[in-house]
């Protein structure tokens, strides 16, 4: 499973993001990019499923399409310049926390948490934070988390619902409307046979926070 060819492919796609170029290079994309990436996604579904609970998804459920939805975007370039997948019980459509990884022109990127929680999911997470503000602080202050991801990321609301304002002074994360963490891995791992295990290590470091977010959604 060789993935280093993803980098030059997406560098070229970035410079030629139009249908004629992609159509001419689609066989290359299918063989050199989509095929090996699908293999990696399958391995990660298996490894993460072994961590529990078991996963009943396929790579097709987890992987995002290369085609961009340009209907409501000022950027009309038709293709994404990376391949990506979400490992979660519901795959890429799961509204809860998951483990995401992508490969693009700059190499490998891994992330987790809740990137786009819906209105109900955001309310549930904020209520969990308001109930025990110290818990999410302890999770994101864990040495392995900080070393791997830095801080918890996400856009914030400038105005909070009244019920959450008293918590803001002691736990600013309650203002977040996204709760995700990320790590840039570059290009060095793309041809390393230990890549699945490296991704699993990163998954395990973020798992306590993912479990916390998942639990908040079940209340």
UniProtKB/TrEMBL annotation:
Protein name in UniProt: DUF2461 domain-containing protein
Superkingdom, taxonomy of origin: Bacteria
Transmembrane segments: none
Organism: Acanthopleuribacter pedis
One family name in Pfam for this protein: DUF2461
